[in-house]
From TrEMBL:
Domain Type II secretion system protein GspF: 174-302
InterPro entries in the cross-refs: T2SS_GspF_dom
Domain of life where this protein originates: Bacteria
Organism whose genome encodes this protein: Pseudodesulfovibrio sediminis
Record protein name field: Type II secretion system protein GspF domain-containing protein
Membrane topology, record value: Multi-pass membrane protein
Keyword terms, alphabetized: Cell membrane, Membrane, Transmembrane, Transmembrane helix
Subcellular location, record wording: Cell membrane
Pfam families: T2SSF
Membrane spanning stretches: 6-30, 107-127, 133-155, 283-307
Length: 318
C-alpha cells in the first residue's frame, strides 16, 4: 500500500478519534453539571434545576461578554451630559432600561466596528494579499462604519416597533380606563387595574402603566409622572393624552369624560391607519406581481405557441 492510499485511512482515523473525544467531552460535561447540581442541592437544601446547571457556563460567558462591552462603552461613549441623556432616552423608548444599557450599547458599536474592520484586514492578509491600498482602506472604513451605524439602525427599528405596539394597544387601554373611572375608581387605581388586566393582551402599555403606578406610589406628583410616561413612550398620541389628563386634573374637569372623548378619537385613528395600510397593499403587490407572477404567466400562455412556431419554421426551412 503506497502513501497515496494511506492518506484517506489516516484522515478517517483522525476524524473518528476526534468525534470520539468530542462525545466523551460532552458526556463528561453533562455528567459533571448534573453532579454539581446534586451537590448544590445537598449543601443548600434547595432544589437546583438541571437546566440551570447545564446552562451555567453559557450564562457566565454571556455575563463576561456583557462586562467587556460595558467597559469598552465607558471608554468610548459620549461625555457630554446632553448627548448621554439623549442616547439614554432612545434606549428607554426602545425598552432597554437597565442601568448599564448605554455603556453596553456603545461597547457593542465599538466592538462591531473593530471586529468587522479587523476581520476584513485578516481576510485580506490570508486570501487577498495582492489587494490595493485604496480597496483595503475603502473596505475597512465601510465595514467599520457598518459596525457603528448598524446598531443605531437596529435601535431605530426597535423604537418604531415599540411605538407601533403602543399606538395599537392604547385605544383598548383607554376603553378600560373609561370603564374603571366611570365605575367610581380614581385615576391612580384605574391605571393600576388596567396594568394588571392588560399584561397579556397589551404587554407594552401594561409595562408603561406599571412604571407610572410605581412612580405615583413613590410619591411623585401626578403631573410629573404623566410627563415622564410621555417621554418614555415617545408617542404623540400618548403625549396628547397626558396633556389632557394634566389639564383635567388642574381645572377640575371630569377625567372620565376626557378619557371617553379621547378614546373615541384614538379608535377612529386606528381604523383610519388600518384603512391606509389596506389602500397601500395594491401598490406594494405591484412589484412582486410584475417580477414573478406575470413572467410565469407569459411563459405558461405563450410558451406552447412559441414552440409550435419554431417547429413550423423549422419544417418550412427543410
Amino acid at each position: 500500500m503506497n502513501e497515496a492510499q494511506m492518506i484517506p485511512l489516516i484522515a478517517a482515523g483522525i476524524g473518528f478519534i476526534s468525534v470520539l473525544l468530542a462525545g466523551y467531552g460532552l458526556i463528561g460535561y453533562f455528567g459533571g453539571a448534573s453532579e454539581s447540581a446534586r451537590l448544590k442541592e445537598r449543601v443548600s437544601g434547595t432544589t437546583v434545576k438541571r437546566s440551570a446547571a447545564l446552562t451555567a457556563p453559557v450564562t457566565t460567558a454571556l455575563k463576561s461578554s456583557v462586562d467587556i462591552f460595558s467597559r469598552i462603552g465607558s471608554k468610548i461613549g459620549p461625555t457630554e451630559s446632553e448627548e448621554i441623556d439623549k442616547n439614554r432616552m432612545r434606549l428607554v423608548q426602545a425598552g432597554l432600561r437597565k442601568p448599564d444599557s448605554l455603556k453596553i450599547f456603545q461597547g457593542v458599536k465599538g466592538g462591531l466596528a473593530l471586529l468587522l474592520g479587523g476581520g476584513f484586514l485578516l481576510l485580506r492578509y490570508l486570501f487577498f494579499p495582492d489587494m490595493g491600498m485604496a480597496a483595503i482602506g475603502f473596505g475597512t472604513v465601510l465595514l467599520a462604519t457598518l459596525g457603528v451605524y448598524g446598531p443605531e439602525y437596529w435601535l431605530s427599528k426597535k423604537i418604531n416597533q415599540r411605538k407601533l405596539a403602543l399606538s395599537d394597544e392604547l385605544p383598548d387601554a383607554l376603553d378600560l380606563l373609561v370603564v374603571c373611572v366611570e365605575s367610581g375608581m380614581g385615576l391612580d387605581q384605574a391605571v393600576d387595574r388596567v396594568c394588571h388586566e392588560m399584561r397579556t393582551s397589551g404587554p407594552v402599555i401594561s409595562s408603561e402603566f406599571k412604571l407610572l403606578t410605581l412612580e405615583l406610589r413613590a410619591g411623585k406628583a401626578r403631573g410629573q409622572a404623566l410627563r415622564s410616561l410621555a417621554e418614555r413612550a415617545g408617542l404623540d398620541d400618548l403625549n396628547s393624552l397626558t396633556s389632557l389628563l394634566i389639564q383635567a386634573d388642574a381645572f377640575g374637569i371630569s377625567v372620565g369624560r376626557t378619557l371617553r372623548i379621547y378614546s373615541d378619537a384614538m379608535r377612529t385613528k386606528r381604523s383610519q391607519r388600518a384603512e391606509e395600510k389596506a389602500a397601500k397593499m395594491p401598490v406594494l403587490l405591484l412589484l412582486p406581481l410584475v417580477m414573478f407572477i406575470l413572467p410565469s404567466l407569459f411563459v405558461a400562455i405563450l410558451g406552447p405557441a412559441i414552440i409550435m412556431s419554431m417547429d413550423m419554421f423549422t419544417h418550412m426551412n427543410k
